[in-house]
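Holo prediction. Input below; ligand is flavin-adenine dinucleotide.
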Amino acid sequence: MLQRLIDALGADAVKTEPEDLAVYSFDAYTDGRTPRAVVLPASTADVSAVVKIAAEYNEPVVPRGAGTGLCGGAVPVEGGIVLSFARMNRILELDTQRRRARVQPGVINLNLSAAASPHGLFYAPDPSSQKISTIGGNIATNAGGPHCLSYGTTVNHVIELEIVDDGGNVFTTSIDHPGYDLTAAFVGSEGTLGIVTSAWVRLMRAPEAVRVWLATFDDVESASDAVSAIIAAGIVPTALEMMDKVMAAAVEAAFHAGYPTDAGAVLLIEHAGFEDDMAHYESEIARIVREGGATTWRSARTEAERAALWAGRKGAAGAMGRISPNYYLQDVCVRRSTLPKALHAVEEIAREYRLTVANVFHAGDGNLHPMLCYDKRDPKQIQAVIESGNAILETAIALGGTVSGEHGIGYEKRDAMTHVYSTSDLATMARVRDVFDPSRRLNPEKIFPSGVRCPEVRPA
Ligand SMILES: Cc1cc2nc3c(=O)[nH]c(=O)nc-3n(C[C@H](O)[C@H](O)[C@H](O)COP(=O)(O)OP(=O)(O)OC[C@H]3O[C@@H](n4cnc5c(N)ncnc54)[C@H](O)[C@@H]3O)c2cc1C
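Structure of the complex:
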Protein backbone atom coordinates (compact mmCIF):
# COMPACT_ATOMS: atom_id res chain seq x y z
CA MET A 1 0.00 0.00 0.00
CA LEU A 2 2.78 2.43 0.92
CA GLN A 3 4.54 1.84 -2.40
CA ARG A 4 1.26 2.42 -4.27
CA LEU A 5 0.80 5.71 -2.40
CA ILE A 6 4.37 6.77 -3.27
CA ASP A 7 3.82 5.85 -6.92
CA ALA A 8 0.64 7.92 -7.01
CA LEU A 9 1.74 11.06 -5.11
CA GLY A 10 5.54 10.94 -4.99
CA ALA A 11 7.83 9.97 -2.10
CA ASP A 12 7.84 13.51 -0.71
CA ALA A 13 4.08 13.33 -0.07
CA VAL A 14 4.15 10.07 1.91
CA LYS A 15 5.68 10.16 5.39
CA THR A 16 6.48 6.96 7.29
CA GLU A 17 9.51 7.84 9.43
CA PRO A 18 8.83 7.52 13.19
CA GLU A 19 9.63 11.19 13.82
CA ASP A 20 7.15 12.24 11.11
CA LEU A 21 4.46 9.90 12.40
CA ALA A 22 5.03 11.15 15.96
CA VAL A 23 4.00 14.72 15.14
CA TYR A 24 0.75 13.50 13.57
CA SER A 25 -0.07 11.10 16.40
CA PHE A 26 -2.08 13.63 18.44
CA ASP A 27 -4.18 16.76 18.19
CA ALA A 28 -5.10 19.17 21.01
CA TYR A 29 -6.89 16.39 22.91
CA THR A 30 -5.07 14.51 25.63
CA ASP A 31 -4.91 11.11 23.93
CA GLY A 32 -2.93 10.04 20.85
CA ARG A 33 -2.06 7.11 18.52
CA THR A 34 0.55 6.53 15.85
CA PRO A 35 -0.63 6.31 12.22
CA ARG A 36 0.80 3.88 9.64
CA ALA A 37 1.46 6.73 7.20
CA VAL A 38 0.88 10.45 6.76
CA VAL A 39 -0.02 11.54 3.26
CA LEU A 40 0.09 15.15 2.04
CA PRO A 41 -2.12 15.52 -1.05
CA ALA A 42 -1.79 18.60 -3.29
CA SER A 43 -5.10 18.29 -5.17
CA THR A 44 -8.56 16.73 -5.15
CA ALA A 45 -7.25 14.11 -7.61
CA ASP A 46 -4.54 13.19 -5.08
CA VAL A 47 -7.15 12.80 -2.31
CA SER A 48 -9.29 10.61 -4.53
CA ALA A 49 -6.27 8.45 -5.45
CA VAL A 50 -5.28 8.00 -1.78
CA VAL A 51 -8.81 7.04 -0.74
CA LYS A 52 -9.07 4.52 -3.61
CA ILE A 53 -5.76 2.90 -2.65
CA ALA A 54 -6.76 2.84 1.03
CA ALA A 55 -10.04 1.15 0.04
CA GLU A 56 -8.18 -1.67 -1.67
CA TYR A 57 -6.27 -2.38 1.55
CA ASN A 58 -9.23 -1.71 3.84
CA GLU A 59 -7.19 1.00 5.56
CA PRO A 60 -8.88 3.78 7.59
CA VAL A 61 -8.35 7.38 6.47
CA VAL A 62 -8.32 10.25 8.99
CA PRO A 63 -8.47 13.77 7.53
CA ARG A 64 -6.47 16.41 9.39
CA GLY A 65 -6.34 20.19 9.27
CA ALA A 66 -4.16 21.96 11.83
CA GLY A 67 -4.76 19.44 14.63
CA THR A 68 -6.22 22.03 17.02
CA GLY A 69 -9.32 19.91 17.64
CA LEU A 70 -9.90 19.39 21.36
CA CYS A 71 -11.82 16.11 21.26
CA GLY A 72 -9.41 13.82 19.39
CA GLY A 73 -11.19 14.07 16.01
CA ALA A 74 -7.91 14.05 14.07
CA VAL A 75 -6.26 11.36 16.22
CA PRO A 76 -5.23 8.42 13.99
CA VAL A 77 -7.15 5.15 14.11
CA GLU A 78 -5.85 1.57 14.00
CA GLY A 79 -2.64 2.59 12.24
CA GLY A 80 -4.41 4.04 9.27
CA ILE A 81 -3.58 6.91 6.95
CA VAL A 82 -3.60 10.50 8.16
CA LEU A 83 -4.53 12.80 5.28
CA SER A 84 -2.98 16.17 6.09
CA PHE A 85 -4.18 19.23 4.18
CA ALA A 86 -1.09 21.31 4.87
CA ARG A 87 -0.32 21.51 1.11
CA MET A 88 -3.90 22.26 0.02
CA ASN A 89 -3.86 25.73 1.52
CA ARG A 90 -4.74 28.08 -1.35
CA ILE A 91 -7.58 30.55 -1.72
CA LEU A 92 -8.75 29.55 -5.19
CA GLU A 93 -11.19 32.40 -5.92
CA LEU A 94 -12.18 35.58 -4.14
CA ASP A 95 -15.50 36.63 -5.68
CA THR A 96 -15.99 40.07 -4.13
CA GLN A 97 -19.05 40.79 -6.29
CA ARG A 98 -20.94 37.78 -4.93
CA ARG A 99 -19.17 38.04 -1.55
CA ARG A 100 -17.89 34.49 -1.47
CA ALA A 101 -14.58 32.64 -1.69
CA ARG A 102 -13.55 29.20 -2.90
CA VAL A 103 -10.88 27.73 -0.70
CA GLN A 104 -8.89 24.57 -0.31
CA PRO A 105 -9.44 22.87 3.06
CA GLY A 106 -5.99 23.70 4.44
CA VAL A 107 -6.49 27.49 4.26
CA ILE A 108 -5.97 28.98 7.72
CA ASN A 109 -9.13 30.70 8.95
CA LEU A 110 -7.56 34.11 9.65
CA ASN A 111 -5.75 34.15 6.27
CA LEU A 112 -9.12 34.22 4.52
CA SER A 113 -10.27 37.32 6.43
CA ALA A 114 -6.87 38.92 5.79
CA ALA A 115 -7.26 38.32 2.03
CA ALA A 116 -10.86 39.62 2.04
CA SER A 117 -10.12 42.67 4.21
CA PRO A 118 -8.85 45.03 1.42
CA HIS A 119 -12.27 44.52 -0.22
CA GLY A 120 -14.15 45.50 2.95
CA LEU A 121 -15.13 41.86 3.58
CA PHE A 122 -14.41 39.22 6.23
CA TYR A 123 -15.07 35.56 7.03
CA ALA A 124 -17.28 35.57 10.13
CA PRO A 125 -16.72 32.23 11.97
CA ASP A 126 -13.82 33.07 14.29
CA PRO A 127 -12.79 30.22 16.61
CA SER A 128 -10.18 31.41 19.11
CA SER A 129 -7.81 29.07 17.26
CA GLN A 130 -8.33 31.05 14.03
CA LYS A 131 -4.65 32.00 13.68
CA ILE A 132 -3.87 28.35 13.00
CA SER A 133 -7.01 26.21 12.52
CA THR A 134 -8.11 25.48 8.95
CA ILE A 135 -11.33 26.07 7.06
CA GLY A 136 -11.55 22.29 6.41
CA GLY A 137 -11.27 21.53 10.13
CA ASN A 138 -13.73 24.35 10.93
CA ILE A 139 -16.25 22.91 8.46
CA ALA A 140 -15.80 19.38 9.81
CA THR A 141 -16.41 20.56 13.40
CA ASN A 142 -18.95 23.30 12.59
CA ALA A 143 -16.65 25.62 14.52
CA GLY A 144 -18.05 28.52 16.48
CA GLY A 145 -16.29 31.49 18.00
CA PRO A 146 -16.92 34.69 19.95
CA HIS A 147 -18.70 36.39 17.05
CA CYS A 148 -20.97 33.45 16.25
CA LEU A 149 -23.50 34.84 18.73
CA SER A 150 -24.80 37.14 16.04
CA TYR A 151 -23.22 35.78 12.84
CA GLY A 152 -23.99 32.07 13.41
CA THR A 153 -21.56 29.14 13.35
CA THR A 154 -19.68 27.74 10.35
CA VAL A 155 -22.77 25.98 8.97
CA ASN A 156 -24.34 29.39 8.28
CA HIS A 157 -21.38 30.39 6.11
CA VAL A 158 -20.80 27.38 3.87
CA ILE A 159 -22.37 27.57 0.41
CA GLU A 160 -20.91 24.66 -1.51
CA LEU A 161 -18.64 21.71 -0.77
CA GLU A 162 -16.53 19.45 -2.94
CA ILE A 163 -16.40 16.05 -1.27
CA VAL A 164 -14.46 12.83 -1.78
CA ASP A 165 -16.40 9.81 -0.51
CA ASP A 166 -15.08 6.49 0.80
CA GLY A 167 -14.82 5.09 -2.73
CA GLY A 168 -12.71 8.05 -3.92
CA ASN A 169 -15.64 9.52 -5.90
CA VAL A 170 -15.77 13.31 -6.14
CA PHE A 171 -19.08 15.19 -5.92
CA THR A 172 -20.39 18.61 -4.90
CA THR A 173 -23.21 19.71 -2.64
CA SER A 174 -24.63 23.23 -2.69
CA ILE A 175 -27.20 25.21 -0.76
CA ASP A 176 -28.01 26.87 -4.10
CA HIS A 177 -29.32 23.53 -5.43
CA PRO A 178 -32.92 22.45 -4.73
CA GLY A 179 -33.69 19.34 -2.68
CA TYR A 180 -32.07 18.09 0.51
CA ASP A 181 -29.50 20.40 2.11
CA LEU A 182 -26.63 17.90 2.11
CA THR A 183 -24.11 20.73 2.58
CA ALA A 184 -25.40 21.25 6.12
CA ALA A 185 -25.24 17.49 6.73
CA PHE A 186 -21.51 17.47 5.94
CA VAL A 187 -20.78 20.47 8.16
CA GLY A 188 -19.98 19.12 11.63
CA SER A 189 -19.66 15.51 10.43
CA GLU A 190 -16.00 15.40 11.61
CA GLY A 191 -14.71 13.64 8.52
CA THR A 192 -17.01 10.63 9.00
CA LEU A 193 -19.20 11.22 5.93
CA GLY A 194 -16.63 12.41 3.42
CA ILE A 195 -13.50 14.46 2.92
CA VAL A 196 -13.85 18.16 2.08
CA THR A 197 -11.47 19.03 -0.76
CA SER A 198 -12.74 22.55 -1.47
CA ALA A 199 -15.48 24.88 -0.27
CA TRP A 200 -17.30 28.01 -1.34
CA VAL A 201 -17.83 30.08 1.80
CA ARG A 202 -19.73 33.29 2.44
CA LEU A 203 -17.90 36.56 3.08
CA MET A 204 -19.56 39.35 5.04
CA ARG A 205 -19.32 43.09 4.62
CA ALA A 206 -17.17 44.65 7.35
CA PRO A 207 -19.40 46.70 9.66
CA GLU A 208 -19.31 50.50 9.51
CA ALA A 209 -18.73 50.83 13.27
CA VAL A 210 -17.51 48.53 16.05
CA ARG A 211 -17.55 49.20 19.80
CA VAL A 212 -16.01 47.08 22.56
CA TRP A 213 -16.91 47.52 26.22
CA LEU A 214 -15.64 45.89 29.38
CA ALA A 215 -17.81 45.45 32.47
CA THR A 216 -16.74 43.92 35.77
CA PHE A 217 -18.87 42.18 38.40
CA ASP A 218 -18.36 40.82 41.89
CA ASP A 219 -19.16 37.29 40.76
CA VAL A 220 -19.87 35.18 37.68
CA GLU A 221 -23.50 34.70 38.73
CA SER A 222 -24.38 38.41 38.46
CA ALA A 223 -22.39 38.71 35.22
CA SER A 224 -24.41 35.76 33.80
CA ASP A 225 -27.67 37.41 34.80
CA ALA A 226 -26.56 40.59 33.01
CA VAL A 227 -25.89 38.54 29.86
CA SER A 228 -29.44 37.15 29.95
CA ALA A 229 -30.84 40.64 30.59
CA ILE A 230 -29.06 42.11 27.54
CA ILE A 231 -30.49 39.44 25.23
CA ALA A 232 -33.92 39.64 26.88
CA ALA A 233 -33.94 43.38 26.08
CA GLY A 234 -33.84 42.44 22.40
CA ILE A 235 -30.18 43.34 21.89
CA VAL A 236 -27.93 40.71 20.30
CA PRO A 237 -24.38 42.05 20.55
CA THR A 238 -21.86 40.64 18.08
CA ALA A 239 -20.01 39.05 21.02
CA LEU A 240 -20.60 38.51 24.74
CA GLU A 241 -17.64 36.82 26.35
CA MET A 242 -16.96 36.17 30.03
CA MET A 243 -13.87 35.42 32.11
CA ASP A 244 -13.68 34.62 35.79
CA LYS A 245 -11.07 36.04 38.16
CA VAL A 246 -8.54 33.22 37.68
CA MET A 247 -8.68 33.51 33.90
CA ALA A 248 -8.56 37.32 33.81
CA ALA A 249 -5.45 37.29 36.02
CA ALA A 250 -3.70 34.76 33.73
CA VAL A 251 -4.63 36.74 30.61
CA GLU A 252 -3.46 40.03 32.11
CA ALA A 253 -0.15 38.49 33.17
CA ALA A 254 0.40 37.16 29.65
CA PHE A 255 -0.89 39.99 27.46
CA HIS A 256 -1.15 43.18 29.60
CA ALA A 257 -4.36 43.84 27.68
CA GLY A 258 -5.99 45.96 30.36
CA TYR A 259 -8.11 43.26 32.04
CA PRO A 260 -8.90 44.02 35.70
CA THR A 261 -7.53 41.33 37.99
CA ASP A 262 -9.53 42.07 41.14
CA ALA A 263 -13.06 41.51 39.80
CA GLY A 264 -15.02 38.27 40.27
CA ALA A 265 -16.03 38.30 36.59
CA VAL A 266 -15.18 40.29 33.47
CA LEU A 267 -17.63 40.69 30.60
CA LEU A 268 -16.32 41.62 27.15
CA ILE A 269 -19.11 43.00 24.99
CA GLU A 270 -18.84 43.93 21.32
CA HIS A 271 -21.43 45.47 19.08
CA ALA A 272 -21.10 46.24 15.39
CA GLY A 273 -23.37 48.00 12.93
CA PHE A 274 -24.09 51.53 11.76
CA GLU A 275 -22.26 54.44 13.42
CA ASP A 276 -25.55 56.28 14.04
CA ASP A 277 -26.89 53.38 16.15
CA MET A 278 -23.86 53.02 18.41
CA ALA A 279 -24.70 55.69 20.98
CA HIS A 280 -28.09 54.06 21.55
CA TYR A 281 -26.59 50.56 22.00
CA GLU A 282 -23.87 51.87 24.29
CA SER A 283 -26.29 53.64 26.64
CA GLU A 284 -28.76 50.72 26.66
CA ILE A 285 -26.15 48.03 27.34
CA ALA A 286 -24.43 50.22 29.98
CA ARG A 287 -27.79 50.76 31.71
CA ILE A 288 -28.61 47.03 31.74
CA VAL A 289 -25.25 45.91 33.11
CA ARG A 290 -25.24 48.66 35.78
CA GLU A 291 -28.72 47.62 36.87
CA GLY A 292 -27.36 44.07 36.92
CA GLY A 293 -24.68 45.03 39.44
CA ALA A 294 -21.68 45.92 37.26
CA THR A 295 -18.97 47.43 39.45
CA THR A 296 -17.09 49.10 36.58
CA TRP A 297 -17.80 49.89 32.91
CA ARG A 298 -15.42 51.14 30.30
CA SER A 299 -15.32 51.62 26.57
CA ALA A 300 -12.28 50.79 24.44
CA ARG A 301 -11.39 54.18 23.04
CA THR A 302 -9.04 53.26 20.22
CA GLU A 303 -8.62 50.49 17.67
CA ALA A 304 -5.41 49.47 19.50
CA GLU A 305 -7.29 49.15 22.80
CA ARG A 306 -10.02 47.05 21.12
CA ALA A 307 -7.42 44.81 19.51
CA ALA A 308 -5.61 44.37 22.86
CA LEU A 309 -8.81 43.30 24.62
CA TRP A 310 -9.56 40.78 21.88
CA ALA A 311 -5.97 39.50 21.79
CA GLY A 312 -6.34 38.80 25.53
CA ARG A 313 -9.59 36.92 25.04
CA LYS A 314 -8.44 34.92 22.03
CA GLY A 315 -5.12 34.08 23.67
CA ALA A 316 -6.75 32.89 26.91
CA ALA A 317 -5.88 29.21 26.37
CA GLY A 318 -2.23 30.11 25.77
CA ALA A 319 -2.19 32.22 28.94
CA MET A 320 -3.02 29.11 30.98
CA GLY A 321 0.68 28.22 30.87
CA ARG A 322 1.12 31.04 33.41
CA ILE A 323 -0.84 29.20 36.06
CA SER A 324 -0.65 25.49 35.32
CA PRO A 325 1.67 22.98 33.63
CA ASN A 326 -1.35 21.23 32.05
CA TYR A 327 -5.03 21.95 31.61
CA TYR A 328 -8.07 20.05 30.39
CA LEU A 329 -10.68 22.12 28.56
CA GLN A 330 -14.28 20.98 28.90
CA ASP A 331 -16.87 22.20 26.36
CA VAL A 332 -20.54 22.02 27.34
CA CYS A 333 -23.58 24.10 26.53
CA VAL A 334 -26.48 25.11 28.76
CA ARG A 335 -29.42 27.45 28.40
CA ARG A 336 -28.33 31.03 29.09
CA SER A 337 -30.79 31.28 31.98
CA THR A 338 -29.08 28.34 33.74
CA LEU A 339 -25.55 29.76 33.41
CA PRO A 340 -25.35 30.90 37.07
CA LYS A 341 -26.35 27.41 38.28
CA ALA A 342 -23.91 25.73 35.90
CA LEU A 343 -21.02 27.98 36.92
CA HIS A 344 -21.77 27.45 40.57
CA ALA A 345 -21.74 23.68 40.01
CA VAL A 346 -18.40 23.88 38.15
CA GLU A 347 -16.91 25.74 41.11
CA GLU A 348 -18.25 23.14 43.55
CA ILE A 349 -16.92 20.25 41.44
CA ALA A 350 -13.46 21.83 41.21
CA ARG A 351 -13.46 22.39 44.98
CA GLU A 352 -14.50 18.78 45.63
CA TYR A 353 -11.63 17.48 43.47
CA ARG A 354 -9.18 20.11 44.77
CA LEU A 355 -8.49 21.45 41.30
CA THR A 356 -8.11 25.06 40.20
CA VAL A 357 -10.60 25.97 37.50
CA ALA A 358 -10.40 28.93 35.14
CA ASN A 359 -13.48 29.92 33.14
CA VAL A 360 -13.49 31.74 29.83
CA PHE A 361 -16.51 31.27 27.63
CA HIS A 362 -19.06 32.36 25.08
CA ALA A 363 -21.58 33.59 27.67
CA GLY A 364 -24.07 34.81 25.07
CA ASP A 365 -24.43 31.25 23.74
CA GLY A 366 -24.40 29.54 27.15
CA ASN A 367 -21.26 27.72 25.95
CA LEU A 368 -19.03 26.97 28.94
CA HIS A 369 -15.30 26.21 28.71
CA PRO A 370 -14.07 25.37 32.22
CA MET A 371 -10.31 24.79 32.10
CA LEU A 372 -9.25 22.36 34.82
CA CYS A 373 -5.64 22.86 35.88
CA TYR A 374 -3.56 19.79 36.66
CA ASP A 375 -0.05 18.44 36.65
CA LYS A 376 0.44 15.40 34.43
CA ARG A 377 3.24 14.19 36.68
CA ASP A 378 0.70 13.43 39.39
CA PRO A 379 -1.53 10.40 38.54
CA LYS A 380 -3.99 11.42 41.27
CA GLN A 381 -4.56 14.75 39.55
CA ILE A 382 -5.10 13.00 36.20
CA GLN A 383 -7.80 10.86 37.80
CA ALA A 384 -9.34 13.93 39.43
CA VAL A 385 -9.47 15.71 36.06
CA ILE A 386 -11.19 12.75 34.37
CA GLU A 387 -13.80 12.54 37.11
CA SER A 388 -14.43 16.25 37.42
CA GLY A 389 -14.66 16.65 33.62
CA ASN A 390 -17.35 13.96 33.59
CA ALA A 391 -19.13 15.56 36.54
CA ILE A 392 -19.29 18.89 34.65
CA LEU A 393 -20.67 17.09 31.61
CA GLU A 394 -23.35 15.37 33.69
CA THR A 395 -24.24 18.68 35.36
CA ALA A 396 -24.78 20.32 31.97
CA ILE A 397 -27.04 17.48 30.87
CA ALA A 398 -29.00 17.61 34.15
CA LEU A 399 -29.58 21.34 33.52
CA GLY A 400 -31.08 20.53 30.11
CA GLY A 401 -27.86 21.35 28.26
CA THR A 402 -25.75 19.26 25.95
CA VAL A 403 -22.37 17.52 25.72
CA SER A 404 -20.62 19.83 23.29
CA GLY A 405 -21.05 23.48 22.42
CA GLU A 406 -18.63 23.75 19.52
CA HIS A 407 -15.57 21.51 19.82
CA GLY A 408 -17.31 18.40 18.54
CA ILE A 409 -17.51 14.79 19.68
CA GLY A 410 -14.45 13.03 18.23
CA TYR A 411 -13.04 10.30 20.46
CA GLU A 412 -13.51 12.10 23.70
CA LYS A 413 -17.27 12.41 23.83
CA ARG A 414 -18.51 9.59 21.65
CA ASP A 415 -19.72 7.64 24.67
CA ALA A 416 -21.43 10.73 26.06
CA MET A 417 -23.64 10.73 22.94
CA THR A 418 -25.82 8.14 24.70
CA HIS A 419 -26.70 10.80 27.30
CA VAL A 420 -28.41 12.95 24.71
CA TYR A 421 -29.50 10.52 21.97
CA SER A 422 -31.56 7.34 22.11
CA THR A 423 -30.37 4.12 20.47
CA SER A 424 -32.79 4.74 17.63
CA ASP A 425 -31.48 8.32 17.15
CA LEU A 426 -27.95 6.97 16.88
CA ALA A 427 -29.07 4.20 14.52
CA THR A 428 -30.63 6.85 12.26
CA MET A 429 -27.36 8.81 12.23
CA ALA A 430 -25.48 5.59 11.40
CA ARG A 431 -27.83 5.04 8.43
CA VAL A 432 -26.93 8.53 7.14
CA ARG A 433 -23.28 7.63 7.51
CA ASP A 434 -23.75 4.39 5.61
CA VAL A 435 -25.05 6.32 2.59
CA PHE A 436 -21.74 8.17 2.18
CA ASP A 437 -19.25 5.92 3.97
CA PRO A 438 -20.67 2.38 3.87
CA SER A 439 -17.22 0.90 4.53
CA ARG A 440 -16.90 3.07 7.68
CA ARG A 441 -13.26 3.68 6.93
CA LEU A 442 -13.50 7.50 6.94
CA ASN A 443 -12.44 8.58 10.42
CA PRO A 444 -13.84 5.51 12.20
CA GLU A 445 -14.14 5.37 16.00
CA LYS A 446 -15.34 8.98 16.13
CA ILE A 447 -18.77 10.36 17.06
CA PHE A 448 -20.49 6.98 17.54
CA PRO A 449 -20.34 5.37 21.03
CA SER A 450 -17.80 2.63 21.61
CA GLY A 451 -19.25 0.94 24.67
CA VAL A 452 -16.18 2.10 26.62
CA ARG A 453 -17.15 4.69 29.24
CA CYS A 454 -14.36 7.27 29.38
CA PRO A 455 -11.00 7.52 27.64
CA GLU A 456 -7.86 7.74 29.68
CA VAL A 457 -6.63 11.30 30.07
CA ARG A 458 -3.06 11.33 28.88
CA PRO A 459 -0.58 14.18 29.23
CA ALA A 460 -1.34 17.23 27.08
C1 LIG B 1 -6.57 27.41 21.85
C2 LIG B 1 -7.78 26.81 21.15
C3 LIG B 1 -8.93 27.58 21.01
C4 LIG B 1 -10.05 27.06 20.37
N1 LIG B 1 -11.15 27.84 20.23
C5 LIG B 1 -12.23 27.36 19.58
C6 LIG B 1 -13.40 28.17 19.41
O1 LIG B 1 -13.46 29.34 19.84
N2 LIG B 1 -14.44 27.62 18.75
C7 LIG B 1 -14.40 26.34 18.24
O2 LIG B 1 -15.38 25.90 17.64
N3 LIG B 1 -13.32 25.57 18.41
C8 LIG B 1 -12.24 26.03 19.04
N4 LIG B 1 -11.14 25.23 19.20
C9 LIG B 1 -11.15 23.85 18.68
C10 LIG B 1 -10.57 23.72 17.23
O3 LIG B 1 -9.69 24.78 16.94
C11 LIG B 1 -11.69 23.66 16.20
O4 LIG B 1 -12.43 22.47 16.39
C12 LIG B 1 -11.20 23.74 14.74
O5 LIG B 1 -12.33 23.81 13.89
C13 LIG B 1 -10.33 22.56 14.32
O6 LIG B 1 -9.69 22.91 13.12
P1 LIG B 1 -8.34 22.17 12.67
O7 LIG B 1 -7.94 22.69 11.33
O8 LIG B 1 -7.33 22.25 13.71
O9 LIG B 1 -8.88 20.68 12.49
P2 LIG B 1 -8.32 19.30 13.08
O10 LIG B 1 -8.17 19.38 14.56
O11 LIG B 1 -7.13 18.88 12.30
O12 LIG B 1 -9.54 18.34 12.74
C14 LIG B 1 -10.78 18.49 13.36
C15 LIG B 1 -11.77 17.50 12.76
O13 LIG B 1 -12.01 17.83 11.41
C16 LIG B 1 -11.74 16.72 10.55
N5 LIG B 1 -11.22 17.30 9.30
C17 LIG B 1 -10.17 18.14 9.16
N6 LIG B 1 -10.04 18.51 7.86
C18 LIG B 1 -11.03 17.88 7.18
C19 LIG B 1 -11.42 17.83 5.81
N7 LIG B 1 -10.77 18.53 4.87
N8 LIG B 1 -12.48 17.07 5.47
C20 LIG B 1 -13.17 16.36 6.41
N9 LIG B 1 -12.84 16.36 7.71
C21 LIG B 1 -11.78 17.11 8.09
C22 LIG B 1 -10.75 15.88 11.33
O14 LIG B 1 -10.78 14.52 10.93
C23 LIG B 1 -11.27 16.06 12.75
O15 LIG B 1 -12.35 15.20 12.98
C24 LIG B 1 -10.01 25.73 19.86
C25 LIG B 1 -8.85 24.97 20.00
C26 LIG B 1 -7.74 25.49 20.64
C27 LIG B 1 -6.51 24.64 20.76
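The radius of gyration is 22 Å. That is the main takeaway for now.
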